[in-house]
């Protein structure tokens, strides 16, 4: 067996040159870490921008789809200043809301007669649903009383 004995002269203590080199290495490492952090932040910002861009694209597609749906609905519903057209179970019903348009042959009535739709006056349009609700209400009371 052998033993290693060292004396104080054998140890090499850091000199100012070695300390300066270590300081430069430390600064180099810090710069590299800052560069990496900057790169990570840039990648994160790019990813967020890509996500935002995709969200905007989806929103645009959604709104254009809604526009297409509304156009289809408008093609099924004739909207005019005097009333509107309802398509229900293959029958077209055009209701006029203006009482002064009662007997006049308006453009809406002309369109209704062309397509063979039934024309309903404003009074009939108002009374019809109320009559149905009243019957439901009365029927509901009869069931409660019995």
Automatic annotation (TrEMBL):
<feature type="domain" description="Remorin C-terminal">
    <location>
        <begin position="29"/>
        <end position="75"/>
    </location>
</feature>
<protein>
    <recommendedName>
        <fullName>Remorin C-terminal domain-containing protein</fullName>
    </recommendedName>
</protein>
<dbReference type="Pfam" id="PF03763">
    <property type="entry name" value="Remorin_C"/>
</dbReference>
<dbReference type="InterPro" id="IPR005516">
    <property type="entry name" value="Remorin_C"/>
</dbReference>
<comment type="similarity">
    <text>Belongs to the remorin family.</text>
</comment>
